[in-house]
Amino acid sequence: MTSTNPAQQLTALTGIRFFAVFHIFLHHLWSTRYETDLTKGQFAGMYEQLDALPAWLNNILAHGYLSTSFFFLLSGFILAYLYWTPGGELALTRKVFWWSRFSRVYPAHLIVLALTLVLTLPRFFFDPQAPSIPLAIASALSTATLTHAWVPPFVPIFSWPTWALSAIVFLYLLMPWLMRWLARLTRTQMIALIAAMPLISLLPTLVFLQFIPDGGEHNIHWQIFIGSTPLFWVPHFAAGMLVSRIFGISRFEHAWREKPKRWWAFGDLALIALIAISITDPQELPIRHVLRHGLLMPLYLLVIHDFALGRGFFARLFSMRGMDFLGQLSFSIFIWQNLLMMISFIVVFTNPAGAPAAIWIALIGLLAISILSTRFIEKPLAARLRGRMLERQSVPGPAAAGVSQGV
After folding, report:
1. What is the distance between the alpha carbons of residues 22 and 262, in angstroms, rounded to a whole number?
2. From CA 64, how far away is CA 20, in angstroms rounded?
3. Domain for residue 163, yes or no?
4. What pLDDT is attached to residue 230?
5. For the chain, what is the mean pLDDT?
6. Which end of the chain offers a freer environment for a tag, N or C, measured as fewer CB atoms within 10 Å?
7. What is d(CA 27, CA 30) in angstroms, rounded to the nearest whole number?
8. Listed residue (139, 163, 176, 152) closest to 71, CA to CA
9. How far apart are the C-alpha atoms of 101 and 90, rounded to whole Å?
10. How far out from the chain centre does Cα 304 lie?
11. Cα gap 51→55, rounded to integer Å
């Protein structure tokens, strides 16, 4: 089953997706500098430029973990917009849908993982604190298949940031059945369910905090468990889907396109509220878990709804020329960031005087390699793999504008 309906480009959402993903990356730099022991001794100069930033800007970086919630909400919304038909079914066969999605993620991911393994191999011979060989092999295999987010000890060893891609792969697999189940609900039931989603999403976190009140502060594996387990992100993904369905924002429907484009919207107020939260001092770990796993969901959903409709000042701002291009870098940023940070550490390890350059290697290097990877690796390989599958299935793919938005 498929459709050739054209997909209107949701440029504001594509643009803000880049800033959300880059916000997550900046948080990783911030947390490396201030929340780990990695920047002591010979690495004391790593990312030291962050020390000179104003307190409010450092606080924004500290809150980068919150953008993970937006990523999963937006993923559910965009995929529902592109592939959820009015009849409640997937617009493509499951096989074609999964192949199309996986072809976007796996090729570049496997290339970067291979480079990472080459760079980390000496560690297992010279670093007494390196993970055991059996654990490293198991982690490498699970990271290669993007299943490592299910096992907390596997996540930090080779490519920590890609736990989010591990979760999104699970959500891709689940989506056809989520569509079918959610489509059975009446509109009233959908509204009731989306109103309850923040609490549903918080349930695992509240249970976790009941048994571990400090949020796993002294055990990183407990933090990874509550923060990275793919199953716990299903409510966010489903909430994004429901916004598309309830308001009829779909490439298969047209009424939403004629709605008036106002210069102000509740999405503007929601985004301002999120920024206001981000400039406050970092919260204790239990509060971070609560904010990340559900409390801020209504604000993010308001932003997604109004940005999709092109309403408000910020929707226009994020629809400026070039935003679509930036948004297409999102997967590459997730895939390459760990390797670029690793390279910056290698530079400092081999030449401590190069510490001031580490942050520029990470920042500029990531943007440059993401552009090259998206242009010459990710998109060409994905297009070739999708083309082969569609030829075998004799099925036309979704409009090019829609494919570029897929997350």
Report:
1. 28
2. 8
3. yes
4. 98
5. 93
6. N
7. 5
8. 163
9. 13
10. 15
11. 9
With bands split at pLDDT 50, 70 and 90, how would you rate the model's confidence at 111? very high
Q: Which amino acid is at 51?
A: D
Q: How many CB atoms lie within 10 A of CB 79?
A: 26
Residues 211, 227: Cα–Cα separation, whole Å: 16
Under a CB-based contact definition with an 8 Å cutoff, are residues 309 and 315 in contact? yes
Q: Which band of pLDDT confidence, cut at 50, 70 and 90, is reported for residue 406?
A: low
Q: Report pLDDT for 278.
A: 97
Please report the pLDDT score of residue 407 as a whole number.
65
The residues that bridge with 84 in the sheet, in sequence order, are 90
Return all residues near 266 (Cβ < 8 A) that are at least 6 apart: 302, 306, 312
Q: Is 3 inside a domain boundary? A: no
Encoding tokens for residue 72? 């999963």
* Token pair 């989506």: residue: 175
Residue 267 lies in a domain: yes
- What pLDDT score was predicted for residue 138? 98
**The pair of three-digit structure tokens given for residue 135, joined into one six-digit string:** 């654990």
CA atoms within 13 Å, Cβ hemisphere of 104: 19
Give the domain extent around 330.
11-405
Whether 4 maps to a domain, the answer reads no
DSSP state of 84: B
Torsion of CA 7, 174, 101, 71, to 10 degrees: 70
Establish how many alpha carbons lie within 13 A of residue 384's alpha carbon, considering only the half-sphere containing its beta carbon.
Answer: 6
